[in-house]
Design a protein that fits this description.
Helix content of chain A: under 10%
Radius of gyration of chain A: 20 Å
Strand content of chain A: 25-35%
Number of strands of chain B: 12
Largest interface: A-B, 94 and 73 residues
Largest sheet of chain B: 5 strands, mixed
Number of helices of chain A: 5
Number of helices of chain B: 3
Radius of gyration of chain B: 17 Å
Structural class of chain B: mainly beta
Order of helices and strands of chain A: HEEHEHEEEEEEEEEHHEEEE
Oligomer: heterodimer
Largest sheet of chain A: 5 strands, mixed
Distance between the termini of chain B: 25 Å
Helix content of chain B: under 10%
Shape of chain B: globular
Order of helices and strands of chain B: HEEEEEEEEHHEEEE
Chain lengths: 275, 189
């Protein structure tokens, strides 16, 4: 997907290239390494189900596409076995550092407001999750996706594909360099517009923690009208979906920074029975 | 211990994820020609019986030995072939069809130690799904193990049958119906 050329260009950038920057980690906090499974004490405990109270429902009439796509039968409760407690592990070989910079994947620079999006991947207990894959995709600055089905009459940008990925570092941090996506209209209802957003795909440590979500920008007036954002009814959950402007992530003369932490659910305290 | 952090809520994958998540897709968990390799394919249907052309299916499975390629699987003595990740990801095409090439996993223990029948763990993502749907695929040639499986045997047979693939000329078919008649059994994980 990304050529050697774009990586070389990246190394020549004024900010020093497409490498994730280092960030601090509080002393004494727990860390989980996805590849080695280093985790103190807790063996084979299941994952908490508190996320069910925060997640949106399947049936949400304001978002019309849910109408024929939500199950009518109640979900069957699944105990957490090894199938749910384990999950895909990604090595470094499938991710190259330039994958995290969406502004250096082509010959020229994309149009739009350059931004840095960074944060930490944690679980519900605050444990940092390292070496874990994070994928993003988004519309360009004009609100158009580089996708054959997107018919929004806004221009494509030949210098912007809109997809990136990275692994969290040893302190659970990820970082992307991209451009701020534009809002765009959609057919959900008359005069419906999606707020500017970046799609995130997160694995975390287990099948049980797999998560696909969207990041929004602070102060966007369209969030109040957006049924996808509003499908999360808990205000604490809504806050989790909104990034915050962060002056400390902002690089002078170069790009504004937004902080967006990702929290996958935490572990049950009681280990499950072992065979 | 301090109060747990609020988890990040799910949001829909939307209609335009292909260039972000399926470039390239990961249909093949094993190379073509691997002994025991089996093709699994299915169609995702909505509540009107129409195929869904913009869904994504992920599978997560154990190796043929029954061990997951994950550091928390304690059964270190069970072998896993080099390069086997246990993970696959397929979009659906215009006909709503997804497919994988994989090998049947071995048994995995239930919390009380009883063996579970061989199964794949599936996540379904699509426009119109505000969070993933989770289901499992069981194998039709494992009727004895399926009958003893703690989960499958706890379900009404009409529900459990939605989780067992159907073999036809060497291909395992597993259709996923999101809503209505023949609705697939989905799980809360």
């Amino acid at each position: 997907m990304h050529s050697v050329t774009s990586w070389r260009q990246a190394e020549n950038r004024p900010d020093g290239g497409c490498r994730p920057s280092g960030h601090g980690c509080r002393k004494g906090e727990q860390r989980l390494d996805i590849r080695t499974g280093q985790r103190p004490a807790t063996q084979l405990a299941g994952y908490r189900r508190d996320v069910a109270a925060i997640d949106p429902p399947y049936d949400y009439p304001e978002y019309r596409s849910t109408q024929y796509r939500h199950p009518l039968q109640p979900l069957v409760m699944l105990p957490h076995t090894l199938s749910e407690i384990t999950g895909p592990v990604y090595g470094h070989r499938s991710v190259v550092p330039s994958d995290h910079d969406l502004t250096c994947q082509h010959a020229g620079e994309p149009l739009g407001e350059r931004i840095i999006v960074s944060g930490r991947l944690l679980d519900g207990d605050g444990t940092t999750i390292r070496n874990s894959l994070i994928e993003i995709w988004q519309a360009n600055a004009a609100g158009r996706y580089a996708h054959r089905v997107d018919r929004h009459p806004a221009p494509l940008d030949p210098n912007f594909s809109g997809a990136g990925r990275c692994l969290t570092n040893d302190d659970g941090w990820y970082e992307f360099v991209t451009i701020k996506p534009g809002a765009y209209p959609w057919g959900n209802s008359s005069n419906a517009w999606r707020p500017a957003h970046i799609h995130f795909s997160i694995f975390g440590p287990a099948f049980a923690t797999r998560l696909v979500t969207q990041m929004y920008f602070p102060g966007d007036p369209l969030m109040a009208y957006d049924p996808i954002f509003q499908s999360v009814s808990d205000p604490r959950g809504q806050q989790r979906l909104i990034s915050s402007f962060d002056l400390s992530l902002t690089r002078p003369e170069w790009a504004l920074g937004y902080r967006f932490d990702l929290v996958v659910r935490g572990r049950e305290a009681t280990p499950m029975e072992q065979s | 211990m301090s109060a747990p952090l609020v988890p990040t809520p799910s949001q829909t994958v939307g209609p335009f994820f292909e260039f972000g998540l399926l470039d390239p897709p990961q249909h093949e968990l094993v190379p073509a020609g691997t002994p025991g390799a089996v093709r699994i394919e299915g169609v995702v249907f909505d509540g009107q019986g129409l195929p869904i052309p913009d869904a994504m299916i992920e599978i997560w499975q154990a190796a043929p030995s029954g061990r997951y390629p994950h550091p928390e699987d304690p059964r270190a003595g069970l072998p896993i072939d080099d390069g086997f990740t246990g993970f696959g990801r397929s979009g659906t095409d215009a006909s709503g069809t997804f497919w994988f090439m994989t090998v049947k996993p071995g048994p995995v223990p239930w919390p009380d130690g009883r063996p579970q029948a061989p199964h794949l763990n599936l996540s379904v993502f699509a426009r119109g799904l505000l969070k993933r749907l989770v289901t499992r695929l069981y194998f039709p040639d494992e009727s004895a193990a399926n009958a003893l499986d703690p989960l499958l045997s706890s379900l009404d047979p009409s529900v459990g049958s939605t989780l067992v693939a159907v073999e036809d000329r060497g291909v395992l078919h597993f259709n996923i119906r999101l809503q209505g008649q023949g609705e697939t059994c989905f799980f809360q994980v």
